[in-house]
Write a structure and sequence with these properties.
Number of helices: 1
Radius of gyration: 30 Å
Number of strands: 9
Order of helices and strands: EEEEEEEEEH
Strand content: 35-45%
Largest sheet: 5 strands, antiparallel
Helix content: 10-25%
């Protein structure tokens, strides 16, 4: 089960003869039915109810000649997050045709915007390339030989 699921169990005792709910009054025994006015067998009704949290996601790609993999990518929906237990809503557009990158990350529970980015796609790719090259330099430093 996921962490957001809620489960409840109810157990009720009924008279097996008349079907009425038995009430514990503390004076009569556990098998005494107030409606039949005698001791009768018990019939138990157990009800289990569970609530599931459902999340949705939509991913769309526009493919066009001249672009590797896609020309436009749109992602909208719920994503899990380590820092926010209820997850976050992400709305992201990567538009290679117009050289645009838009991303809005919103807290699912409170609705506050956690991160917002609107910039040229080339700037985003440059930062990613610099991070990749610095990781490569870090891994290729002396003493970090691959096995």
């Amino acid at each position: 089960m996921q962490s957001g699921n809620k489960e409840s169990i109810k157990k009720n005792r009924y008279c097996a003869v008349c079907g009425q709910k038995k009430v514990l009054d503390g004076v009569s025994g556990n098998n005494f039915c107030l409606f039949c006015e005698k001791e009768t067998p018990n019939k138990y009704l157990v009800t289990v109810a569970e609530t599931l949290n459902v999340h949705d996601q939509v991913k769309m790609l526009k493919k066009s000649t001249g672009y590797k993999k896609f020309a436009v990518s749109v992602i909208k929906g719920w994503f899990s997050s380590h820092s926010h237990k209820d997850g976050v809503d992400i709305y992201r557009i990567i538009d290679k045709e117009n050289d645009e990158y838009h991303e809005v990350v919103e807290d699912k529970h409170t609705g506050t915007i956690l991160h917002q980015s609107h910039e040229k796609l080339a700037n985003t790719l440059d930062m990613e390339a610099r991070a990749t090259s610095s990781r490569r330099e870090y891994l290729n430093r002396p003493g970090m030989e691959r096995r």
